[in-house]
Design goal:
Layout (H helix, E strand, L loop, with lengths): L9 H19 L21 H12 L5 H16 L5 H17 L2 H26 L5 H81 L3 H31 L17 H10 L3 E7 L5 H21 L4 E9 L2 E9 L13 H12 L3 E8 L7 E10 L10
Parallel strand pairs: 1-2
Antiparallel strand pairs: 2-3, 3-5, 4-5
Helix pairs in contact: 1-2, 1-4, 2-3, 2-4, 3-4, 4-5, 4-6, 5-6, 6-7, 6-9, 8-9, 9-10
Length: about 400
Amino acid sequence: MAARLPRPHRFDAWVALAGLLGGLLLCGIGLGMRPAHDPTVLFDGPWPIVLPLFLMAGGELLRRAAPRTALLIGTVAMIGDVLTQGSLITLLMYTDLVYTAVLYGTPSSARHIPRVTGLLTIVATLVPYAVWRVPEALLVGVFIGLVAFAPASTGLIVRNHREAADSARLRAEQTALLAEMDRTQAVAAERTRMARELHDMVANHLSAIAIHSTAALSLEDEKTSREALTVIRENSVQGLSEMRRLIGILRDGTPADDKAPAVTPTLDGLGVLVEGARANGLDVTLDAVHGSVPAPVELAAYRIVQESLTNALKHAAQGAVTVWLRGRNGALELRVTSPHGGRDAPRAPGSGAGLVGMRERAALLHGTFEAGPENAADGTGGKLWVVRATLPVTDVPRGGTE
């Protein structure tokens, strides 16, 4: 099956029609590029100009749809035009075909056409001068340069500028895409961070409220109920205060109450945290020895201990809970142990996000985290739930766990 030529562009059809009409007008008034009786003219008279003109107009129809084919047709038409008196319109349309062949053609055409036309210009300059030895012979090379090499060079320059502009636009689009991906990742990371902070800050107080409210409802002793309600009120006030501080930070970067403590806790606050756990009914002991620790590590360690105590409050059996923390060998090591087993259901409902959050905090600092049941070391056969974390205190990633 024969290959079909592509459909011409509408603008190219208008260019071909304008060139054809202009050439016919010049032919009708008998205006050619050379006199009628010039010895170099093989086909005298105005009308032999028409056939190359029609061929050249046909090439203009394909100037963008098939640039190489259009240039081939135009070259044949130009050779035919040289044998006649010649038409200025045919010549102008040929320069356009050379230009568009470089501009819209394949990369191979864009490289080779300027080289070939440049070589033809040199040859057309040197050979006639060498044969005729007259300065006028140099005009042949000038003519070839203006008709072929100059349009080809112009097309190459414009093509290079367009490709550079396309490359710059593509880079800009890629940069915008990468920026959008970074923004999306930053939003996701911020949402994850806020989820961890909200869980760690509020879950402890809400768990204590749930446990003590259950006790207050299930026991009819007035003294026990009042004690439970006192704990519920304290945890409610503390939870509300922390929520206000966090909301202030989210709004404008400062706590809502200027007199409120900083929203980011430190290891110095572990004592207060343990006292609060004792007030909620846990038998907790703290054994902490540490030196100067980067703020991201302090926050991660504090939150891991806080969540571990919250889990002990909800899930642990009766018995001692131990918080052990040491800074050594370029890392902060912590361990929280609590009695495991002996409870059919948790004292307060949980979401299961606590262990995930603790593991994320350790991973963000390139540390390690593990949690699970272990046999008690006293040989009684009892089970302990042990949370272990090792957090490097050197080469802390920027941003840490915040």
